[in-house]
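Lab notebook page, bench 4
Experiment: in silico fold of construct C2
Operator: M.H.
Input chain length: 466 residues
Purpose: comparison with the prior construct
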Amino acid sequence: MLFSSIPFLYYFLPVVLIAYYLVPKPAKNMVLLLASLVFYGWGEPSYVFLMMASIGLGYVFGILIEKFRGTNWSKVCMIISVVISFGFLGYFKYTNFFITNFNVATGLSLPLLNVVLPIGISFYTFQLVSYIIDVYWGKVVAQKNFVILATYITMFPQLIAGPIVRYSDVEHQLIGRSITFERIAYGIRRFCFGLGKKILIANILGEYCAAFKATDEKSVVFFWTYAIAVSLQIYFDFSGYSDMAIGLGSMLGFQFIENFNYPFISKSVTEFWRRWHMSLGTWFRDYVYIPLGGSRCSTSRLMFNIFVVWMLTGFWHGAEWNFIVWGLYFGILLMIEKSFLLKWLEKYKVFGHVYVLLLGIISFIIFDAANMSAASQHIGAMFGMTDIPFVTGITAYYLKSYAIVFVFAMIGATPLPKLLIEKIREHKVGNVIVRVVEPVVMGVLLLVVTAYLVDGSFNPFLYFRF
């Protein structure tokens, strides 16, 4: 089930919220757990058992780690739990990738397995592993109540698209949380805002991308505008889902961490990754980069640590070589910046903005490509390395048709709209106007989105490969 679907918006969510608000506090976690299992099992009920098995093992090993604290058995239990969790992820997500590459390397023809990737397995695996490691490090106490731990892992607002919520961030909220009208109102606004980003910007940019892929009359300009469109589509799709998750969490009494902070205004790749998918970046920092030695080591070791982290970051996104190359692409850029370039970029900020936008656009071509061959051909075409015209009538037609959404997307990817509203709110009259107009805008936005969904328009799920 997707947030951006009629069944979720008008059947599942209202029923869940009514039940959730009506039951007493001790029963709220059970209602949320059952709702989350229904949500996850809507399209593939068999994988609910896989997820619950993972949670059950994590529950047992968390208790054992704490029981044997101070002995080698604690470390053994932690390692076994992490290996099992990553073993499930590796089997379902990467088995066919390794078989395919083994066949290529050896010339054999081993058959691929009939393995279907469970949606959200990358997200809930990382959450479970972070919980286990934090218990081992003594940062959190092992949860003895299975329902509470299962509620944390399965919580439907962030289950299939993040943000990756740490147990330590919501530990106290899982036990006792306050639900106020202010939080509910904020959650509704944030959810509607994210839904609009997903449906009215990301999906429409996705239509432009689909039109580009479908036509044979491509041009240099078309390749460039497609690259810009796919970059913005991924951003608005992913950040839109994060907004919806944060909004839903607020409606339920939770305060989730932010996941995006206007990454396209960055002046360096280092800054970009402090603003893009922040929950994933901090996860790799805390559980891979720092344990490897972080930056407090020799230069060669530092480069090795960056290489490992960014290879894994790329591989986490999908079982294809282009994802690994995408991760290493950023890893190399970060190595260069740490070596000498970062100080220069901070001095010449305009150049830094252009540098980030150009390299970011190229990165998303690699990310979106079916394989590295397609990515190479696309990048070559962008820089005139193929025999195609600079612009064609088809290019002009589509640009004219989608010009408005391009403008809205480019402005919306900056903090300008937010700053404008904050400026208006500084004045008493302006604040009153915003408070009156805001619910009307949210209502109209929901109606427009509903009409778009009822029409059966383009509505892809980009996180399937995650």
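Observations: Residues 183-454 form one domain. The chain has 18 helices and no strands.
Next step: discuss at group meeting.
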